[in-house]
Design goal:
Elements lengths: L2 H8 L1 E9 L1 H4 L1 H10 L6 E4 L5 E12 L6 E5 L5 E3 L11 E6 L2 E6 L36 E2 L9 H4 L7 H6 L26 H20 L5 H20 L34 H34 L3 H7 L45 H20 L3 H11 L3 H10 L3 H10 L4 H10 L3 H10 L3 H11 L1 H17 L3 H9 L9 H10 L1 H13 L4 H12 L4 H4 L1 H10 L5 H18 L8 H14 L2 H6 L13 E4 L11 E4 L5 E4 L5 E4 L5 E5 L5 E5 L4 E8 L2 E8 L4 E9 L2 E2 L2 E2 L3 E6 L2 E6 L6 E6 L5 E9 L2 E9 L5 E9 L4 E6 L9 E4 L3 E8 L7 E7 L12 E3 L7 E3 L2 E7 L6 E7 L7 E5 L8 E5 L2 E6 L3 E5 L6 E6 L4
Parallel strand pairs: 5-6, 8-22, 9-34, 14-19
Antiparallel strand pairs: 1-3, 1-4, 2-3, 4-5, 6-7, 10-11, 11-12, 12-13, 14-15, 15-16, 16-17, 18-20, 20-21, 21-22, 23-24, 24-25, 25-26, 27-28, 28-29, 29-30, 31-32, 32-33, 33-34, 35-36, 36-37, 37-38
Length: about 950
């Protein structure tokens, strides 16, 4: 470098830009320097060697040795040149820079442009949308319908099979087919007795009655022949008047064909449709005369169908074949029918639900069924050998009624998508359906099906046997599904099962630790097993040696997890196992985490890995007997300064509070503010795993909904809904709402409200509120009956698939005084004021099974002005305080139980308090700004605070 050039690097220059040496200082430092010197209208370009050209909007005076990068100056020819470059080589619009002692020239407009906006992280910023002052009408966003559709593959059309022949139609014209029909909402549950139609009554009066009189007087010599014929005529007319509907399988008619009766409700007798015995008697009488004629028709049809199959005239055989069905169960009586099995004239396709086997003629029995089954099986094998795969699949699925064999055939011939469609349409195993959709490339559909049918684990296991790489990909998708729902720990546990995926779980585990409480305690052993550092070990020891309730602080959960998962470092593992064994003895076992049998085994595992001297001195854990007394608590003696419209104690020990238009606050157990969000909310919808909460602000029938990530503490607006009720808990993804149209399940991860499931309909409506736990959901439903009346029932579904498990008629029901519990019971509070004696509110329970303690009805002292409050399986009932002021809340858990605790809110008005069951805690709150939380059994106080604006 010459003396002149060296002076240029030390002098003050008028810089029009700078060259940032990104390969040396790194992108983060270069970005920070660019933002520090940014001007409105500045330009940032990337040079071929990786350096950045930062062009200022206006020149600045700066010393070259203090500049953020190599200064750029404007030349006499209007070009840009870096200090040290030969300025004579560049023209206007070009840039000269020295590289390795040689000056390189670039056109500035041709250099790639960089956008600094991509460097900004907006995840921690809350977006506020200005609203006009005054009352405004909130408009709900349109809802997208994305209900899962059951596939109905048309194998007959795929095989190119035409409708049946004219001759076959004539042979079966006595049994015309009808359209497929879905079972009516009350089919098999409530069937009113049908009166005989006018044709049946006329036949009985004009034909049967005279014949019976003549036969009785001996004037009818041919009575042995005419009487059965008349009886057969009457049977046909009765059948026509009833308008029998054929089954969806295209086989025999009868009142119950095609609609399998649902399982009877537990604890309730349900009337089953019965076919009158008179019909069977008439059919038997008619068979004595018409039997040979009907048998001949059957025989001709069967003979011609068999010959077509044996001669491999597949076109004729498959067109004229009828479908077989499975064997009847012992409870399905085979009613007599005079016609051939009914056939479906339209395109035959696998139906979502196959009906019963249908009525069979007394002239065709097991022998004919077995003959046709063998005939169809041989045909399927011949068609497969001939390469006619579609026809072979049609024979197996639609004629042989063996969809599983048809799926296996399609898989053998690499028709995976068709096999998946058939397997899902015929309700085959969920793990099979998921595996087939995944192998067919329908990844989103496979994940959606696996979630809805709770089949992730069996699907991964089944896929691992055939394709380990695909099984690993499905496991990653399973973890991503949990991660998107906010369940970080769940995602890490899914990945942990595959040793090759464990390093990718570190990010999820660290997010789970940030949530605190039992979630943090269950995540720490995984990090220690991966070789986490000193800070992780110190945090685990602090939890094990700390105070507080063992379940609420996560001490028991950490000890139980360490018993199963040793730390990677043997020295750390011995130290942690020793501390965990001490904690178990001090707490009297794994409180609230394990049963007695598992607790003993895990404690022994800890002792084997603990310091031998300490283990030898430790006593056996002894659990203290639970106190039988009713636990009584008193909330803060004065009201807070902010209203509380909803509250919940989180697993971290913090309390999340919704204060209406004052926003949402995260408080410590003694009331200090840890975080706040200026998002209006009067309801909290908490995820079961505790990582996410939906913030709901109601404006009449419209609700503004935002999503709060409790790990990152960031909020984003989701949508505006029109809904009458939002269930206060969800799985982190699917939000349950209810309105006049029934129950709707929405996907909260979709950009717009998207319906993924609906329940009720056809006049059925929900009364009161739904009660939900992760395993099930219960509500009171009013359903119309065919006679125009209504019936009140308690419906219970299993989640996440929404399988209806029971329908009970409650012993007592009173709107506004009743509440359903998620386990499938109903609580009715009946106030009974008395003259002279203390007032009392009697509790009526409706349960699926008899209560363990029958006898006098349980009750509480005082008259409850409101109905029961329920969240999940926890319930509460509020009565006036002992001195007539304040509110006394009696709380309990489960059906038929007596209250386990009382919570007194002194000097509170008569507005009903609130109840929330979440994270092994029960939170009680009152609108006056007071919150009190206990353990689920009410034995331990976890938080008692006032909510203030400070």
């Amino acid at each position: 470098m010459s003396a002149t050039q060296g002076a240029a690097f030390r002098a003050a220059v008028t810089a029009t830009g700078f060259v940032l040496d990104v390969p040396v200082i790194g992108p983060a430092e270069a970005a920070e320097r660019a933002l520090a010197s940014w001007q409105e209208g500045a330009d940032l370009r990337q040079l071929p060697d990786g350096r950045w050209l930062f062009v200022l909007a206006a020149p600045v005076e700066i010393r070259a040795d203090r500049a953020p990068g190599l200064p750029v100056v404007r030349t006499d020819r209007g070009a840009q040149a870096a200090v040290g470059a030969d300025t004579r080589t560049a023209a206007a619009g070009e840039f000269a820079v020295a590289t390795g002692g040689v000056t390189a020239v670039h056109r500035i407009a041709a250099l790639p442009e960089l956008d600094p906006a991509g460097w900004l992280d907006l995840s921690g910023i809350t977006l506020h949308r200005p609203r006009p002052a005054g009352a405004t009408e909130h408009e709900a966003e349109p809802v997208v319908e994305a209900l899962p559709q059951r596939p109905e593959p048309d194998l007959r059309a795929a095989a190119g099979i035409a409708p049946r022949s004219e001759r076959a139609r004539r042979l079966t014209e006595g049994a015309p087919a009808g359209p497929r029909r879905r079972a009516a909402p009350f089919a098999g549950r409530f069937r009113p007795a049908s009166a005989p139609g006018p044709w049946a009554l006329a036949a009985a009066v004009l034909v049967v009655l005279p014949l019976l009189l003549l036969a009785a007087q001996g004037a009818l010599h041919g009575g042995a022949l005419l009487l059965p014929l008349a009886a057969g005529l009457l049977a046909v007319l009765r059948k026509r008047d009833r308008g029998a509907v054929p089954g969806p399988d295209g086989s025999g008619g009868g009142a119950e064909a095609g609609t399998a009766a649902p399982a009877p409700e537990h604890g309730r007798s349900r009337g089953r449709a019965r076919r009158p015995l008179f019909d069977a008697l008439l059919a038997r009488l008619a068979m004595r005369t018409a039997g040979p004629l009907i048998q001949g028709r059957h025989a001709r049809y069967l003979h011609e169908l068999t010959r077509a199959f044996e001669q491999r005239r597949w076109e004729d055989a498959l067109r004229d074949a009828i479908r077989l069905t499975g064997e009847r169960s012992a409870e399905q009586k085979s009613w007599l029918s005079l016609g051939l099995p009914r056939r479906y004239e339209g395109a035959l396709r696998p139906t979502p639900r196959t009906g019963g086997s249908g009525a069979a003629s007394p002239l065709s029995g097991r022998t004919v069924h077995e003959h046709l089954a063998a005939l169809y099986q041989r045909a399927a094998e011949d068609l497969e050998r001939a390469g006619r795969i579609d026809e072979a699949a049609f024979v197996l699925a639609d004629l042989r009624d063996a969809p599983a064999e048809a799926v296996a055939l399609l898989v053998r011939h690499r028709r995976t998508a068709q096999a998946a469609e058939l397997a899902e349409g015929r309700d085959l195993g969920a793990d099979l359906v998921v595996r087939l959709w995944w192998q067919a490339g329908e990844r989103e559909r496979a994940v959606r099906t696996a979630y809805r049918r709770a089949a992730f684990a069996p699907a991964v296991e089944r896929l691992a046997a055939d394709d380990p790489a695909s099984a690993r990909e499905l496991r990653v998708a399973w973890a991503a599904h949990r991660r998107e729902s906010g369940d970080r720990l769940g995602a890490a546990e899914v990945l942990w099962a595959d040793a090759s995926l464990r390093p990718s779980a570190v990010g999820d585990l660290r997010d789970a630790v940030a949530l605190g409480g039992p979630t943090r305690s269950r995540a720490l052993p995984y990090l220690l097993a991966l070789g986490a550092g000193e800070s992780t070990r110190a945090l685990a020891l602090a939890i094990l040696d700390g105070d507080g309730h063992p379940a609420a602080t996560g001490r028991s959960a950490l000890a139980a997890a360490l018993a199963e998962l040793p730390a990677a470092d043997p020295a750390q593992d011995r130290e942690l196992a020793t501390a965990a064994a001490r904690a178990v003895v001090r707490d009297g076992g794994f409180t609230g985490v394990l049963g007695d049998r598992d607790a003993g085994a895990r404690h022994q595992r800890l002792l084997k890995r603990a310091d031998p001297l300490v283990a030898a001195d430790l006593a056996r854990p002894s659990r203290a007997a639970p106190a039988a007394d009713l636990h009584a608590y008193t909330a803060a003696d004065r009201a807070g300064t902010l209203p509380v419209l909803d509250a919940a104690l989180l697993g971290s020990g913090a309390v999340l509070v919704a204060c209406g238009q004052a926003g949402v606050r995260l408080l410590t157990a003694d009331g200090r503010t840890k975080a706040r969000w200026d998002v209006p909310a009067d309801q909290l919808v908490l995820a079961d795993h505790g990582g996410v909460a939906m913030l709901v602000a109601g404006y009449g029938q419209v609700r503004e909904v935002s999503r709060l990530d409790l790990a990152t503490r960031s909020v984003r607006r989701w949508t505006t809904l029109r809904s009458r009720q939002i269930v206060p808990s969800f799985d982190g993804r699917h939000l349950i709402t209810a309105d006049d149209d029934g129950i709707t399940v929405l996907d909260t991860l979709a950009p717009r409200p998207t319906v993924v499931w609906r329940e009720l309909g056809g006049g059925e409506r929900l009364v009161g509120r739904l009660a939900r736990t992760p395993a099930g959901c219960t509500g009171v439903v009013v359903s119309p009956l065919p006679d125009g009346t209504q019936v009140v029932e308690l419906w219970r579904w299993d989640l996440p698939g929404w399988e209806l498990r029971s329908r009970l008629r409650p012993d007592a029901f009173s709107p506004g005084r009743s509440a359903a519990l998620a386990a499938g019971s109903l609580l009715v509070a009946d106030p009974q004021p008395a003259d002279g004696s203390p007032d009392r509110t009697v509790l009526h329970w409706t349960t699926e099974s008899p209560l363990a303690r029958p006898g006098a009805r349980p009750g509480i002292e005082g008259v409850a002005p409101h109905g029961p409050i329920v969240d999940g399986d926890h319930w509460a009932l509020a009565v006036p305080g002992p001195d007539g002021s304040g509110v006394l809340l009696h709380t309990g858990v489960g059906a038929g139980s007596a209250p386990t605790a009382t919570v007194l809110f002194p000097q509170a008005d008569t507005q009903a308090p609130g109840l929330r069951s979440h994270a092994d805690a029960v939170t009680h709150w009152h609108r006056s700004g007071r919150v009190l939380a206990t353990t689920p059994d009410g034995a331990t106080l976890l938080a008692n605070l006032r909510v203030t604006a400070g």
